[in-house]
Each structure stands twice: as structure tokens, then as C-alpha cells.
Amino acid sequence: MSLKLPPLSSLRAFEAAARLESFSRAADELYVTHGAVSHQVKALEEFLGTSLFTRSGRRVSLTSEGKFFADRVRAALRDIGDAVESVSQQHRANRLAISVLPSFAARWLMPRLGRFMERHPELEVHLHASPALVDFTREDIEIAIRFGRGNWPNVEKEKFMNDEYFPVCSPRFNQGHLPKEPKDLAKCRLLRSDQEPWMPWFQAAKLQLPEPRGPEFNDSAMTVQAAIAGQGVALSRRSLAENDLIAGNLVRLFDVAIPALGSYYLVWRKGSTPSANFLAFRTWLFAEKKRKR
Prior knowledge:
Blueprint lengths: L7 H13 L2 H8 L3 H15 L4 E4 L2 E4 L1 H30 L1 E6 L1 H18 L4 E6 L13 E6 L6 E7 L2 E6 L20 E4 L5 H6 L11 E2 L2 H9 L4 E5 H10 L3 E2 L5 E2 L3 E7 L6 H15 L3
Parallel strand pairs: 3-4, 3-5, 8-9, 8-10
Antiparallel strand pairs: 1-2, 5-13, 6-13, 7-10, 7-11, 7-12
Helix pairs in contact: 1-2, 1-3, 1-4, 2-3, 5-8
């Protein structure tokens, strides 16, 4: 048997007006117009078949039926609010929101994340891929993975992983005739990532070459993907190329590598206590870093 109930919006308008003894103040609290509150209350009175307020100009006061009904509506709305909060807390308890750089998400984290979700099927993982720094005071993000020197203000941080750069290309690049010595790169199309120049690697390889003018990408993952497609030689971080080196989609050229100027860090809100979900992800992440593929 279904219950015939008035709209929740009319109950909220009535409760506010009864508590504040004013349609105008109720309208201000609910961010609606005075007329909207008056209309909702009138519709509720018609639904119930009785007057809930006595009106004298712009002043209103509850009738005896209105007082009786207001007490019970207020208790019912409180119960609904408690139920919403309880369900919301249960949902948040099983939720883990992570912000990560798009390049790292695509080439390192995503190929591994399935193992974390298999280990923790109770968790609802929300992955936000963005190059922007997280504002933990305004965004619903618990943990971020960022690349840099760890000098971000107003956050807690923990170094997760160092990195290094070296040249990679597809085994099919140049029809399989790959450069044998660093100097051979002078004849190759060199792919560039924004803010990741070749010059430091040239210096480490003792090459006197200018910074190349080849294709430039604003995302490191795109640079690696272009190399996989055989479009040129990329200077890649180990973290971004590792999976494809193991799979044979890429080959490393030469033994020369240079350390990255930054590292990967776990970052979270300053002064906050990590949740159990956070700690589970952290434990898995450090174990995954050591995992032999």
C-alpha cells in the first residue's frame, strides 16, 4: 500500500516558515522568493484540507493544527537528514579520491591499478588526472601524486620514487635500423616534451649538438606514445617507458641516463590524518614500486 504524501519541497517551506514565524525569513533561508514559500504553504494546506497559519497582513502564526503538524514534520525532516548523513558517511568510508599527473596516470599507474582494486574490492577509487596542483581545502581529493622537488606550500608530502631520463624508440623505427652510438642521433628525428630538453642528456653523452627542433608535446605520455608509433626517438623518464620496454614496444638506446630534476611525491592536506583507505593505497604503491614485472 503506497502512502499519499505532499512534496518534500512544501514540507521544507512549511517547516522553515513555522520555525521562523515568517514567510520572508523562510524564503531567505531557502534562497527562494516570498511568493514561492507562500505558494508551497498554500498548496500544503489544500493537500491537508486545513489551515496551518493564521494570516494578518504580512504576519503569520501557527494554528493549533499547524503546531501539531510542525512538530512532526520537523522530527521527520531531522530523521531524513540523519539518514542522508549516515548513508553519505558510509559512501565516503568506501571512497578514495586520487589526483595524479596525466602522464604518470596513463603510463605507470593505470597498468597497475587493477591489482590494487582486486586487493581492495570494497573501495570505490576515483582517479582525477590533471596537471594542476590540488587545492585540498576546496577539492574532494584525499591524496595526490606529483612530480617535482617537493617544495609545495601548505601540504604534507612523502617522496615516493626518483626517476631518470634516457632515449627510447620503437624497434621498428627507421625500418629497424636503430642508432648504434649517441652521435647517430644527429641524423634522427628527436621528439621533445615540454620542459624536458635534450641538452642535459647531450652533455652527459658528451655530444655537441644543439637543442633539437623536432616535434614537441606538452605531455610526456604523448611523447612516449609518439615514439611507440615510430615517429622518432624520445627522451623519456624510466617510469613512463618501463611498461613498454618490458612489452617490447620500445627499446632503450645506449647506457647513458641522467637523473630527473624532480621526484614523485605523495601529497596530502597539511595537518590531516590519513584515512585507512589512504594508508592501504600508500602501502600498495610502495610495494608496487618494488615489484618485479
